[in-house]
């Protein structure tokens, strides 16, 4: 069954991780698991220096310069399909986030994820949520 | 660390579910959790009639007519980030699959997923795997 907006938002905010999809011009969609924090209107995805990466000039940032639209999926898998659910948020990159607001996102990320305690971020991608839909196998 | 192709393929084949990304022309990427079966060269995603949906003329099928490229992500989340891993397969829709081969995919899906026992599928999307990459937080 379709989930209402309030339920979608609640599940998005409390989810521990999600899948971020971005769209390069020259190939199929790029999908990557991400840590994030969300409110009813915005989502922030850090480019951290904690998990080892080849570079912090990540493809996802370059994709978003080409096309600022992205999608964040959170979901629950279960072998019992009546327990399945997912929530999909449509996003658009916020071009410039005031530094004070960025500091708040940094802090929210550190509170949500203990391994980020004391961490600094190479970048934080801040998105406006332009729509949210969800589905549940229950009911 | 980067995972080798053999390791990527092994994790893709044994994963119980994945996230399929397709690219509509008019908006950001569509992401949806899917059941699937994979070999080293192909992946098949059913459009089933078991989990309730608004329609079997699904957006993912229409997206793939517009752009046959897709991405399948399988991943493991863990609060211990040294246990994180993901594998991403680049896909391209196979336009026409011989009916005998389709029957084999149907059977493989029923073997992998008990709730599909006795089920028929509205459609099975068959993709060629054009590339695979993976990452693990371990080591």
- Mean pLDDT rating of chain A: 90
Report the biggest beta sheet of chain A as strand number plus sense, adding barrel if it closes.
Answer: 7 strands, antiparallel
CATH architecture of chain A: Roll
Number of domain modules of chain A: 1
Radius of gyration of CA atoms of chain A, rounded to a whole number: 15 Å
Give the fraction of residues assigned to helices of chain A: 10-25%
Cα shape of chain A: globular
SSE run of chain A: HEEEEHEEHE
Low-confidence stretches of chain A: none
- Overall SS class of chain A: alpha+beta
**Largest interface (C-beta under 8 Å):** A-B, 36 and 36 residues
CATH homologous superfamily of chain A - what is it? Electron Transport, Fmn-binding Protein, Chain A
Oligomer: homodimer
Q: With helices defined by DSSP (H or I, 4 residues minimum), what is the helix count of chain A?
A: 3
Give the number of DSSP strands of chain A. 7
The percentage of residues in β strands of chain A lies in 35-45%
Assigned CATH class of chain A: Mainly Beta
Question: How widely separated are the two ends of chain A?
Answer: 7 Å
């Amino acid at each position: 069954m379709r989930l209402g907006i309030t339920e979608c938002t609640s599940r998005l905010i409390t989810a521990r991780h999600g899948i971020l999809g971005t769209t390069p011009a020259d190939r199929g969609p790029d999908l990557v698991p991400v840590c994030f924090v969300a409110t009813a209107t915005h989502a922030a995805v850090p480019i951290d220096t904690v998990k080892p990466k080849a570079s912090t000039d990540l493809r996802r940032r370059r994709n978003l310069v080409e096309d600022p639209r992205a999608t964040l999926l959170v979901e629950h898998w279960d072998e019992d399909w009546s327990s399945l659910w997912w929530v999909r948020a449509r996003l658009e990159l916020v071009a410039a986030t005031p530094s004070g607001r960025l500091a708040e996102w940094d802090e929210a990320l550190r509170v949500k994820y203990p391994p980020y305690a004391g961490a600094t971020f190479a970048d934080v991608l801040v998105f406006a949520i332009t729509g949210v839909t969800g589905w549940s196998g229950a009911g």
